[in-house]
C-alpha cells in the first residue's frame, strides 16, 4: 500500500489523505472553515493538491515536524498564529516558504521581516493565490529534493560501504526490472483509480485524468511528463521516495519515457546544466564523493544554457542553510 500522510486529529480534511506529491500546503488560521478561505483553497489546488488546515498552533507544529525532510511545505498563517509558530518551524528543511495572511500588514511586517522564508505579508486573497502559484513554478524547478545514491569505489580503505553501495545497486536493479516487466491493463486501471480517489477534490486534475485515460499514447509520454499535471507530480515523488508500489504501477510509462529518450538521444557529446538548491550537509557529502559514482533517483531535467539554469536562482531568495549548486553535466553517448 502507498504510505499514508501521518494522521492528525486537528486537520479539517480527512486524516487518511495520502500524499502522492512532494509539495503540499498547510493553512493555519482560526477561520479556516470560512467561505473566503474555501474559495482560495479551490484556486490553489491547480498547483498544490494536498492542503491541510489547522486551528491549533501546537498540533500544526507537530504535523510539520513529523513530515519527512524530503517533503516540501508551503505555509499560510494568520498574523497572530504566525507570530507564534514561525520562530519554531522556520529552520525546518521541509518548510520552503511562508505567507502571512492578515488584515494588519504593517504590524505583521515588523515581526516577519526577521524570517527569510516569509515571502509575503498579504491582505488580499487573490494576491495571495497569485503569489503562491507564481512562486510554486520556480520552486518546482529549483527546490525539489535531490534524491540520489552514491557508489563508493574505495571499498578497501577500512570503511564499511555495504549500505551505501547497496542502495546504489538496488536503485539500478529496480529500474532495470521495471523496464523488463511487461505492464497490463489492470495495473494501469489501478493507477488511474488511485489517482482519481486522491484528486477527487480537484476538478482540473480530474479533467487531466480523464484526458489521460482517453488519449494517452507512448509517443505523448514526454509531453505528459513535462506538463504541469498529476503525471509529473506523482511519478517524481514515487521515484524520489522509492515507493515501489507506485513505481510498479507506472512501469509502462517509465518504459515509454526510456524509449522516447533513447529515440531522441544525441549522437555526439553534449553539455547541459541544472541549478539546484542543496543543504550544506548535502553539498558536503557531494564534495566528499568526488571520484565516486552517483545515480539520480528520478528524471533529471536540465538546460542547454548555463545562464538559463542560473536564472532560477536569481528569481528566488536563497534561504538559511541552503546553497545554490550549478550542475554541469557532460553526456557522452559513446560512454553510456
TrEMBL record:
<protein>
    <submittedName>
        <fullName>Uncharacterized protein</fullName>
    </submittedName>
</protein>
Amino acid at each position: 500500500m502507498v504510505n499514508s500522510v501521518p494522521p492528525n486529529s486537528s486537520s479539517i480534511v480527512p486524516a487518511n489523505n495520502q500524499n502522492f506529491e512532494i509539495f503540499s500546503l498547510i493553512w493555519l488560521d482560526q477561520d479556516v472553515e470560512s467561505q473566503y478561505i474555501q474559495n482560495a483553497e479551490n484556486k490553489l489546488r491547480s498547483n498544490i493538491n494536498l492542503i491541510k488546515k489547522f486551528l491549533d498552533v501546537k498540533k500544526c507544529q507537530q504535523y510539520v515536524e513529523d513530515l519527512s525532510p524530503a517533503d516540501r511545505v508551503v505555509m499560510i498563517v494568520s498574523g497572530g498564529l504566525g507570530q507564534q509558530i514561525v520562530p519554531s518551524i522556520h529552520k525546518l528543511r521541509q518548510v520552503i516558504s511562508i505567507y502571512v495572511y492578515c488584515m494588519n500588514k504593517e504590524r505583521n511586517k515588523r515581526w516577519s521581516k526577521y524570517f527569510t522564508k516569509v515571502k509575503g505579508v498579504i491582505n488580499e486573497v487573490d494576491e495571495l493565490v497569485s503569489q503562491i502559484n507564481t512562486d510554486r513554478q520556480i520552486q518546482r524547478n529549483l527546490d525539489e529534493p535531490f534524491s540520489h545514491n552514491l557508489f563508493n569505489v574505495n571499498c578497501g580503505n577500512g570503511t564499511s560501504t555495504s549500505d551505501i553501495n547497496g542502495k546504489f545497486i538496488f536503485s539500478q536493479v529496480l529500474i532495470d526490472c521495471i523496464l523488463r516487466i511487461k505492464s497490463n491493463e489492470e495495473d494501469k486501471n489501478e493507477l488511474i483509480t488511485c489517482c482519481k480517489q486522491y484528486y477527487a477534490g480537484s476538478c482540473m486534475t480530474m479533467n487531466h485524468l480523464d484526458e489521460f485515460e482517453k488519449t494517452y499514447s507512448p509517443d505523448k509520454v514526454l509531453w505528459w511528463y513535462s506538463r504541469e499535471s498529476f503525471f509529473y507530480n506523482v511519478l517524481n515523488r514515487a521515484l524520489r521516495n522509492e515507493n515501489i508500489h507506485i513505481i510498479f504501477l507506472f512501469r509502462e510509462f517509465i518504459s515509454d519515457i526510456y524509449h522516447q529518450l533513447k529515440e531522441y538521444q544525441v549522437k555526439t557529446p553534449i553539455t547541459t546544466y541544472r541549478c539546484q538548491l542543496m543543504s550544506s550537509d548535502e553539498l558536503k557529502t557531494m564534495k566528499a564523493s568526488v571520484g565516486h559514482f552517483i545515480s539520480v533517483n528520478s528524471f533529471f531535467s536540465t538546460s542547454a544554457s548555463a545562464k538559463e539554469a542560473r536564472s532560477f536562482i536569481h528569481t528566488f531568495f536563497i534561504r538559511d542553510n541552503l546553497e545554490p549548486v550549478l550542475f554541469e553535466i557532460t553526456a557522452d553517448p559513446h560512454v553510456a
